[in-house]
Design brief:
Strand order of the largest sheet: 4-1-6-9
Largest sheet: 4 strands, antiparallel
Number of strands: 10
Helix content: under 10%
Distance between the termini: 11 Å
Number of helices: 0
Structural class: mainly beta
Strand content: 35-45%
């Protein structure tokens, strides 16, 4: 299964995340796809200068978000339902530890 992580560089009036380039409202400025299983997998570090990030997958998954990915995702970690787009405030240098639910 794959988890999609999208990073957004600024926020439009009304609070919707948008990319850094004009005319790209709602488009991610950076993105990554991470294949996960029952073993925890680390994302790359969150880029600097982002104002919002979202995660989404077709199946439920669990995550931890910590400096350098130092906290591994377990069966009791934060839960995201299948198909739910989950929003977080980004922290530069933090990494996700992800696994299936």
């Amino acid at each position: 299964m794959t988890v999609e992580i999208s990073y957004f560089a600024r926020v439009a009036t009304g609070g919707l995340p948008i990319a850094a380039d004009p005319g790209q409202d709602g488009a991610a400025s950076k993105a990554q796809s991470i294949s996960i299983s029952t073993a925890p997998v680390l994302s790359v570090a969150t880029p600097d200068g982002q104002t919002a990030l979202s995660l989404i997958a077709t199946e439920a998954f669990r995550y931890e978000y910590s400096p350098s990915g130092s906290v591994a995702a377990t069966a009791s970690s934060n839960y995201v339902s299948a198909g739910e787009r989950f929003w977080l405030a980004p922290r530069a240098g933090h990494r996700f530890s992800l696994r299936t639910a």
